[in-house]
Give the backbone structure.
Amino acid sequence: MSHWAFQGRGLAFSYPGGTPALEEVDLDIAVGERVALLGANGSGKSTLLKMLDALYFATGGELLAFGHPLTEEAMADDAWAFSFRRRVGLVFQNSDVQLFSPTVWDEIAFGPLQLGLSHEVIAERVQAMLARLGIEKLADRPPHRLSGGEQKKVALASVLVLEPGVLLLDEPTASLDPRTQDALLDILREMHGAGGTIITATHDLDVVSELADRAYFLDETHRIVHEGPIDDTLADDGLLLRCNLARARAVGVR
Amino acid sequence: MSAQGIAPLPPVFLSRLEARPGSPRRRRDFLAKTIAGFSQAMENALLAEGFSRRGGLLQGLDPRLKVAAGAVLLVSAALVRHPATLAGLYVVVLLLAAASHLPLGWLLKRVGVAVLLFTGALALPALFLTPGRDLLSFGPVQPAGFGPLTLAITEQGLRTAALLILRASVSVLLVTLLVFTTPWATLLKSLRVLRVPQFFVLVLSTTHRYIFLLLRTANDMFLARESRRVGRLSGTDNRRWAARAMGHLLVHSYGLSEEVYLAMLSRGFRGEVTAQGREAFQWQSRDSWAAVAALAFAVAAVSIDAMLGWR
């Protein structure tokens, strides 16, 4: 098995019409790492996450997942797609798009059902996941009637139930109250402790050091402009200003 | 108040707008009615979930039976041709609603509005266009470019329109009863068990799910506009804004559908839905009795209708 979860060289992505979202992106993320993708709104973080989840495919460069090319042709192979989807899970920023089933129970069961697990295993896993996130009482509720924090927990449960080795998170703490943020961070620490790879796209500098050990910085030209240990990079005011991650007044620049 | 304790003057444009307020007793305008409509739609949906958890007659029956019996009764309502038979069916469905603890007045109003809105448009021309004995004449009138014209409601037209509205009322009432006495997720699961194609059930499920999100977005858009509105806007301005809002919602829903599809792909969706409900259905003896009763009632309705011999 490859030591690398993802390796990208010269990655580029443009939306139909030619609007660039990513340019010349190089990255290496090892299995078991905690990595942050930091950048302002519109810098391309979410697009990069979707590429890592094989939802978007690079329009330039090469991306490998676990040593295999991550291309549209490769994902057309059911065996590889099945294996990839079991190993990589994405929690979307907007929980509303991720919660499309009639009840919370159905929502959490959706992924395992698509991956062909037996009904007994699914029932056990869903129950265990509900208990782990403390949301057993929500099992029969429709997702659209839940609060933002509850929705985020259900979205996380719907991905964690697949027991992915790699978890991709898009702005996971956005609009969460402090207690729910703590609960989420605890779950992620637990997953990392068990050897999981966690890749988080965010611009929330308050919690990023608890989510990642290393960071890639994207600026408004949609390129990676810096990579390094999280604590060092967060102390670099010039870098934060360049990537539009800090206000000039807050870092003492006039 | 400003720091000096002097109240700041309002901007000039605000005082201009305030110079033409609407009448204090003006009717609720288009915007207020729209907001109220959105809120009502959401409230009704919440109410429906509550009804399905009440301990009434239909709530206690197996959902598979309810779906199948509902389908049989719908077919019988489509087959019968005598108004008396349809009226009998209508009364029986109302009795079932009462035994299921649904508020009859609220139910009748809801069904009545839906039927008149959609079926009324079809029934109205039938009143005048169906050949037969004249009951009531209007005219003669002379529309531009035409000769004198007499409009008449015919006896046969009245019968046809009444039959159409009655049949639609029974059908809508039956479906409403089914939806209000069965939790939505359970209803979807019973459709799957009864071999309704998965794709159809998925579309039904996601439509129901996202209609709330779009309603909420629309409601927020209207409220955001209301919070910035000063004075009264003309009907033209309101209509123009409504058209833009609809366009925005359409674009928004398109983007949303793309994201939802990606979220499904991310969790292993490959174009074919696999589904499983939380709990298995349990058929009980009362369900057998109810099945026999529903079937017997449908057969009786069709047989009695044949004996009445309506043409």
About this structure: The interface with chain B takes residues 50, 53, 55, 78, 81-82, 85-86, 89-90, 92, 94, 96-103, 105-106, 109-111, 113-116, 119, 122-123, 139-140, 142-144, 158-159, 162 of chain A (CB under 8 Å). Residues 138 and 215 of chain A are 35 Å apart (CA to CA).
